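Budget justification aside, the reviewers requested a transparent look at the raw inputs and outputs of the sequence design task funded under Objective 1. We therefore reproduce one unedited record. The lines immediately below are the structure tokens for a 125-residue chain.
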């Protein structure tokens, strides 16, 4: 089970980005996986700042929340030499979509949310 002992995410978080990444890494390793959580952005991020999906000064009258959710199961990579299939990334995307829409008020309207999945039904990544 994923128990990262995080605060109520509907309130302002007090965990930093760096601490969140460390907790994620520890949880991933505790269940036997070697993946490393990463963060990528087009702007400089202070990893010691509190984690937040929406800035404290976000003004919905001036700004729009946009999201890009990408899930790759890599189901067509099986061979005797190489198997990169991931079993639950599509489920993770559905859970994340539910979380950001219902907890953080993101819209799932076209143009505001893009979902890319390698499932044959969505736009592929």
């Amino acid at each position: 089970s994923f128990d990262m002992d995080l605060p109520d995410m509907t309130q302002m978080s007090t965990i930093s980005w760096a601490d969140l990444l460390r907790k994620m890494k520890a949880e991933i390793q505790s269940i036997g996986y070697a993946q490393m959580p990463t963060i990528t952005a087009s702007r400089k991020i202070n990893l010691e700042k509190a984690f937040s999906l929406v800035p404290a000064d976000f003004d919905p009258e001036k700004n729009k929340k946009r999201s890009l959710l990408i899930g790759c199961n890599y189901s067509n990579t099986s061979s005797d030499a190489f198997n990169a299939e991931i079993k639950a990334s599509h489920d993770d995307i559905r859970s994340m979509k539910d979380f950001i829409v219902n907890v953080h008020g993101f819209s799932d309207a076209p143009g505001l949310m893009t979902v890319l999945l390698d499932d044959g039904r969505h736009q592929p990544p």
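The chain has two helices and two strands. The beta strands are 67-71, 113-117. Computational costs for records of this kind are itemized in the attached budget.
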